[in-house]
């Protein structure tokens, strides 16, 4: 079976994890800051904050931006639910705007129309690994004085107009799930050039706790009702090596050292992984460019995608079979496929709690019924790619 995606691990990755297991630190040790520093250098950012999932990365971004009740966050519907959930976690309202019909990336024109006095941020999702139009989005964000967030969980290693993904927005979220470009098992990271955001996210991932003496407020400051004697007051005020303070309500979103060690090893292979994904995508594009019934998504001239997914659009009604039937036929030929994604605004939770509805994002809704993700991962051989092309051609195009 050729799955739609899978991790690529080698002996160096295994050795890195084993070395950590044999060391003194399984969590809160040196591997996490080492991974953060290496990743920040890779994407050209000043700061990187590692967390335990891409979802946690997006949530940390919302907290760093102080997004909250009565705020609105603009997000596209063709994405995983976490892109919108992160705003809902903080009590804000995700506002879904439609996508470009050729790339399925967030449409800057639709973004402009959706901005209100309550808008706090735009979440631009690099769907399939194709960067969004960041210049257009940046102009809108700056003009309205709102934050620009890149959900780059699909696009590490991609570039926009020659600039690496990771510094194109105010904050950029990455994911290291096993089917992504590099993996830490589970994990995520936020890159930013803003030290205030970085500090806020580091607190947030560790229960809102700081151990930085320069930021300590003391334990007696807000307790005028307490009347301890001098000795007990002195003891309470003592800030020894054990001391910490909780300044905000955070979560345990830390990345363990085991995961970071794997990430450090995987990061050395990112360029090779992306290069292989691009070669696979080029073979698919060449095969299906003129195919009847199969239409790849458009690649803009200003983008060099990282190809997390290779998504095609199929008019299943014209083919004469349902998507379920096509997926089953491909599976019988050893080809695993998937659908990315059900438009988030159609999910029952959002319909129930945010009054979203069918017809709200017609471009995304029309695209959804045609989407199919073909296998895409670096370990695919040329023979694997040819097998997928032949199976899709036979099943969909009748060749």
Structural account:
The chain has three domains: 11-208 and 249-269, Aspartate Aminotransferase, domain 2, CATH 3.40.640; 209-246, no CATH class; 271-397, Aspartate Aminotransferase, domain 1. The model has no long low-confidence stretch (mean pLDDT 95). The chain is built from 15 helices and 15 strands. The strands form four sheets. It has a seven-stranded mixed sheet, with helices on both faces. Strands 7-6-13 form a three-stranded antiparallel sheet, with no helix packed on it. It has a three-stranded antiparallel sheet with strand order 12-14-15, covered by helices on one side. It has helices at residues 11-21, 31-43, 54-64, 82-89, 108-114, 134-144, 195-204, 230-237, 257-267, 270-288, 316-319, 323-332, 348-354, 362-368, 382-397; strands spanning 47-51, 72-75, 93-96, 119-125, 147-151, 159-160, 163-164, 171-175, 188-192, 209-210, 245-246, 294-296, 303-304, 310-314, 371-374. The protein has 399 residues and is α/β, with parallel strands linked by helices. Helix 4 links the parallel strand 2 (72-75) and strand 3. It is globular. The longest helix has 19 residues, at 270-288.
